[in-house]
Amino acid sequence: MTEPTDHEPTKEAAQDAVAGPATANGEAAVPPEQTAEPDPFVVLEKLKQENSELKDKLLRTLAEMENLRRRTEREVADAKTYGVTSFARDMLVFADNLRRAVENVPADVRARAEPALATFLEGIELTERDFTSRLEKYGVRKLEPQGARFDPNLHEALFEVPDEKVASGTVVQVVEAGYAIGDRVLRPAKVGVSRGGPKPAA
User: What is the rounded CA–CA span in Å between residue 178 and residue 154?
Assistant: First the structure.
């Protein structure tokens, strides 16, 4: 019987090679290729859930961006329309003074006024009309409430005028002209309102 050489595996080594490496408790270890793989249905459900969450986030982000775009457009439009509000309100005093300058000249004085004075008064009236038209270029328009139904959003009532022939709540006198810019009131018209007449039509 020959002794095993260093180059020949012993019987025990051959058995160990077939059995594979042992674990700490002496059991044979399971090769990596034999470990359990994840259930494809579970993986698919996870992917579907992740996809749904990402889609929801995307839709929310798109909606927020659209709202931001609309809000920005509205703010830009408002800035264009109402950016001159403070300036225009200050300029209304200038328009009022022009109108008062003309109205304070009695009719009989104008009728017999010398050519120089008549020309001067016409120049003031022309300046007022030109100034009003320039305000209109920037969206400022003069309110014309005479004969209209009183509207607290557009008019400021200073007094009441008894008149049984005119429907109650009708503007019968304009003390100070009102102005609007865009769809906002720049300055309400100061008016006198009728009372004692028939009820206004609905």
Answer: 8
What global pTM score does this model have?
Answer: 0.60
Evaluate if residue 138 carries a pLDDT over 60: yes
> In whole angstroms, how far apart are CA 155 and each of 82, 98, 125, 132?
20, 22, 25, 20
Domain assignment present for residue 198? The answer is yes
- Amino acid (1-letter code) at residue 101: A
What CATH number does residue 147 fall under?
A: 2.30.22.10
Q: Is 164's pLDDT higher than 80?
A: yes
Residue 130 or residue 1, greater confidence: 130
Q: Which helix (H) or strand (E) holds 48?
A: helix 40-82
Of the candidates 159, 158, 157, 153, the one whose C-alpha atom is nearest the C-alpha of residue 180 is 153
In a domain, 4, yes or no: no
Q: Whole-angstrom Cα distance, residue 166 to residue 162?
A: 9
pLDDT top residue among 148 and 200: 148
Comparing 22 with 154, which gets the higher pLDDT? 154
Residues in the chain: 202
Q: Which two tokens stand for residue 20?
A: 């594979």
Is residue 160 in some structural domain?
Answer: yes
Which residues form the domain of 195?
143-202
| Domain annotation covers residue 109 | no
Number of domains the chain contains: 1
Top-confidence residue, 156 or 27: 156
